[in-house]
Amino acid sequence: ARLQLDVVTIFPEYLSPLRESLLGRAIADGLIDLSVHDLRAYAPDRHRTVDDTPYGGGAGMVMKADVWGRALDDVVRPGPGTTLVVPTPAGRPFNQSVAAELATRRQIVFACGRYEGIDQRVADHAATTVEVLELSIGDYVLAGGEAAVLVMVEAIARLIPGVLGNPLSAVTDSFGDASVGLLEYPSYTRPLSYQGLEVPPVLLSGHHAAIARWRRDESLRRTARRRPDLIAALDPATLDRADSSI
Ligand code: 6GU
């Protein structure tokens, strides 16, 4: 039950980092299959046109539905195991729970738009045969979906069993299941003293309960300072009695 990843783009070379490091190993190990498709191969004209001016006027160009339709007819396997992801700053937020959901799929097709986006009928028509998710990776505007696909694929792939060296590290980090909505605590390794800065002594104490308490306090303190929105969203049931002193 390996995951099939397909990326459709007018810049296929942009996706070459996907064959490096973590992802490259998962592909070599047969855990993931990756295919990158050039959208222009599906353009019928001599100039391989993929965009046109927007109905209603306005700036920029819109990617053509018929070109995208031919590409997706070729790539998408219809049925409940497939999700079509359309990266767009106008999408729902991509987050760890969306990544975890996508890591359970059989096929994920990423449709990378450029310019002012893709004719909306492409997503609307695809939704008659597969799940379609229009997703944003944050509140800023990228020139195209390619960089967002690099981000989403890395977040998804590391959740697939066998892709990470240590399967526990996928759930103990920030936004993973174990720390339920808190940022990760700070980490230290040798040497004991660096540029006059010492490792917090509790980490050398061998007192496992004290270390766990210190790490949780650091997570809470860091989250309160950097992400007050996450503190506000915390499920009170996940707080312990000692947490209230932070
Ligand atoms: Cl997914 N795509 C583009 N083009 N811009 C974005 C984005 C996605 N997420 C945030 N900005």
Number of domains: 2
CATH-assigned fold name of the largest domain: Alpha/beta knot
Number of strands: 9
What structural class do the secondary elements suggest?
Answer: alpha/beta
Low-pLDDT regions: none
How many helical elements?
A: 8
Specify the helix fraction band.
Answer: 25-40%
Order of helices and strands: EHEEEHEHEHEHHEEHH
CATH superfamily of the largest domain: SPOUT methyltransferase, trefoil knot domain
Query: How much of the sequence is in beta strands?
Result: 15-25%
How many angstroms does the end-to-end distance come to?
45 Å
Evaluate the radius of gyration.
Answer: 22 Å
CATH architecture group name of the largest domain: 3-Layer(aba) Sandwich
Widest sheet: strand ordering = 2-1-6-5-7
* Biggest beta-sheet profile: 5 strands, parallel
Query: Residue-averaged pLDDT, rounded?
Result: 93
Shape: elongated
**Cofactors and ligands present?**
6-chloroguanine
Instruction: Output the CATH class name of the largest domain.
Output: Alpha Beta
Main location: cytoplasm
Pfam families: tRNA_m1G_MT
Catalytic activity: guanosine(37) in tRNA + S-adenosyl-L-methionine = N(1)-methylguanosine(37) in tRNA + S-adenosyl-L-homocysteine + H(+)
Binding site for S-adenosyl-L-methionine: 113, 137-142
